[in-house]
Write a structure and sequence with these properties.
Length: about 300
């Protein structure tokens, strides 16, 4: 099952809620726009992104003299796809090794996302190394080790409470020695203590830059799609101090409303690179903006 089919199933409730406007109303009038705004906000696009999208749609409808709600739906698809197209959705892997620093609060599926990334890229023939930089929870490193075993890749870890920067340093040395293609680093997710977390992430970034100068580096923020606008608040907080370059959104498999994907891309101008649509390793899928919007509005 491809990206479109999985997203279509995962966002069924949202698709039905939004799509019924285009079948239930025949004219593009003020009632249509009011109803559309309400449903987009309820779908987790948020007020700012919704107002921006509907304003753009109004202009297009006027400029092109669109008459039917079906024409408006197609125009809205283009508007939302443009809001999502804010950067390259491919993972930056131009150098060998490339580094992905994975950040996010505890509970969003960060470690699982790392495991699924490892599975994806080892299946593509890449040599992957996982680095257990979340040393504050022994369970995080244990879970990562299980994923490393499933993916058939190596892992570098130390004891609970070790200096995360020290683990990252060891990981980079191991990556060099073994000719690794991709280093994926897990980090702690203690957003409530931003100063310590900021210092820790900065220290890790400095070590990566010092030991692998010029290496492709991605700072991938993982968000839980079911948290709605709280996910956007988390994203803004991390963007302030962590140099986020891209986003992965998990749990778009039934309970999430989906609009948060558009809200994050629009508000932060960061590309969504992966979405999680289920529990299986291949359910973390590269993001496709046009297919996502089509599934959302069809």
């Amino acid at each position: 099952m491809g990206f479109f089919e999985k997203i279509k199933i995962g966002l069924m409730e949202t698709r039905n809620a939004i799509g019924s406007i285009f079948t239930g109303l025949s004219e593009v009038d003020d009632d249509f726009y009011d109803e559309l705004e309400e449903r987009l906000i309820l779908a987790d696009l948020g007020v700012d992104t919704t107002v921006k999208a509907v304003d753009r749609l109004r202009r297009i409808v006027m400029e092109k003299d669109l008459k039917t709600t079906d024409q408006a739906r197609k125009a809205l698809q283009n508007v939302l796809a443009e809001m999502l197209n804010v950067g390259d959705t491919r993972l930056n892997m131009e150098t060998t090794p490339a580094v992905v620093l994975v950040i996010g609060v505890n509970g969003v599926g960060k470690t699982t996302t790392i495991g699924k990334l490892a599975t994806r890229y080892t299946a593509e023939g890449k040599k992957v190394l996982l680095v257990a930089g979340d040393t504050f929870r022994a369970a995080a490193a244990d879970q990562l080790e299980i994923w490393a075993g499933r993916a058939g890749c190596d892992i570098v870890r130390q004891h609970e409470g070790a200096d995360p920067a020290s683990v990252v340093y060891d990981g980079i040395q191991s990556a060099r020695a073994k000719g690794v293609d991709l280093v994926i680093i897990d980090t702690a997710g203690r957003l409530h203590n931003k100063t310590n977390l900021m210092n820790e992430l900065n220290k890790i970034s400095r070590i990566v830059e010092r030991e692998l100068p010029g290496a492709s580096k991605e700072v991938l923020l993982v968000l839980d799609g079911t948290t709605g606008q709280n996910g956007l608040i988390q994203a803004k907080a991390f963007q302030e101090f962590a140099g986020v370059t891209s986003v992965a959104i998990t749990k778009l498999d039934g309970t999430a409303k989906g609009g948060i994907v558009i809200a994050v891309a629009d508000a932060l101008q960061l590309p969504v690179k992966f979405v999680g649509v289920g529990e299986q390793p291949d359910d973390l899928m590269p993001f496709e903006a046009e297919s996502f919007v089509e599934a959302l509005l069809q």
